[in-house]
Amino acid sequence: MFVVELSLKLSPMPVSVQRKELDAAMGLYGEIKGAMESGHPKLLELSCEKAEEKKVCLLSSEVVAVQIYEKSAMGAGAKRPGFSIDG
Length: 87
Known about the structure:
This protein has 87 residues and is α+β, with helices and mostly antiparallel strands. The protein has one helix at residues 22-38, and strands at residues 2-8, 15-19, 43-47, 55-59, 63-70. It has one domain (2-74). It contains one helix and five strands. The strands form two sheets. A three-stranded antiparallel sheet has the order 2-1-5, covered by helices on one side. The protein has a two-stranded antiparallel ribbon with strand order 3-4.
């Protein structure tokens, strides 16, 4: 299971969606990155693969960061996803 996590302007909590396959997660990452690069606000509708009725829609201009990580990496003793200077 892979998590695509978005950080939003003025929001302390990230928005995240899960994808079963890495290819699907990478595709969504690319779509979000492209919307951020375009410079033109675009609505992004994200849905859950497991429960398709769960959806969230957000404005691409409000996204400040996007990352992908494998959910199993969050096991006991694992470091938080993202980058750190702790090496």
